[in-house]
Amino acid sequence: MTARKLTFADKLLPTCRANSDQYAGPPETYVEALYQMVVEASGIADPMAELDLETSERFTIEEMASNPVALRFLQMLIWMTGATHILEIGAFIGVSTIYLARALPPGGKVVSIEKFDEFAAICRANFARNGVADRIDLRIGDAFDIVPKLPRDELFGLVFIDGNKERYRDYVEMTEPLLAPGGVVVIDDVFFHGDAVNRPPRSEKGQGARAVAEAAARANNYRRLLLPLNNGMLLMMKERSPASPATARS
Fold first, then answer.
1. Rounded distance, CA 245 to CA 173, Å?
2. What's this model's pTM, rounded to 2 decimal places?
3. Distance CA 237, CA 121 (A)
4. Residue 75: how many CB atoms within 10 A of its CB?
5. What pLDDT does 3 receive?
6. For the purposes of burial, counting CB atoms within 10 Å of the CB of 215, is it exposed (0-12), middle (13-18) or buried (19 or more)?
7. Which one in 91, 188, 237, 247 has a CA-CA gap of 20 to 30 Å to 62?
């Protein structure tokens, strides 16, 4: 019997058999062991242990906030690109906002948009409790009302989108004029629990997540990479232009 030829898909994830067949422990413990190795090697602490946080009674941090590995990834992007001006759409209780603000160089600012008053109030408390309130400009309301009113002469070096999945593609199109040449858009939860991989997706959120991935495939003015990190993170770096405004901040 001829063995099946190994494919690149067989080696996409660390949990694929081709990448985990040397693990000696029970298979059901591999992901936890892998996670512990990642956070230890990366120096990543649990947000609940590292931060002083007021939480929501409706949702846990584990349910709604970005994974600690993804938070470190966002910080790495800031450190590597030197971004000083960041836009965040969807803050929840401000965990990701705090990590973005902590990675900023002196004088940097995060403009964070949270639609719901309930979560925005918790955000404000958490920003103050963790000493980053002076680096965050929290806007409360719908991003589609707020973003068009932002100044056009201060471009963003990083845009982090974690709002309504149904509108992901609209968020990218709306923020494109505000993204500096060479700036990066990061879109979270693009796999949407596997539904976006379905053809067609079964939910409106899955359809919205798939739509932004399909739009990225056609976006030749961006360099892009859809990473199988957590629930799927799409990176899109805007091509640099020799005619970029001299006043642009990144």
1. 20
2. 0.92
3. 32
4. 16
5. 73
6. middle
7. 237
CA distance 94 to 137: 12
CA distance 250 to 248: 7
Of 166, 190, 186, 189, the C-alpha closest to 175 is 186
Q: Distance between CA atoms of 106 and 14, rounded to whole angstroms?
A: 37
- Is 224:234 a contact under the CB 8 Å cutoff? yes
Helices 168-175 and 204-218, packing angle to 10 deg: 40
DSSP state of 81: H
Q: Is 191 exposed, middle or buried (0-12, 13-18, 19+ CB in 10 A)?
A: buried
Q: Which residue bears the tokens 């800031």?
A: 78
Q: At what angle do helices 68-81 and 30-42 cross, to 10 degrees?
A: 30
CATH fold, domain 58-238, is Rossmann fold (3.40.50)
List the domain boundaries for the chain: 11-42, 58-238
145 phi-psi bin (left φ>0, alpha ψ -120 to 50, beta other): alpha
For residue 91, what are the contacts with CB-CB under 8 A and spacing of at least 6? 97, 112, 113, 114, 119, 120, 123, 138
Nearest-angstrom CA–CA distance, 92 and 47: 14
Per-residue confidence (pLDDT) for residue 1, from 0 to 100 = 54
pLDDT digits (tens, 9 = 90+) for 26-41: 999 999 999 999 999 9
Q: What is the DSSP letter of 159?
A: E
Neighbours of 82 (CB within 10 A): 11
Give the residue ranges of the chain where pLDDT is below 50.
243-249
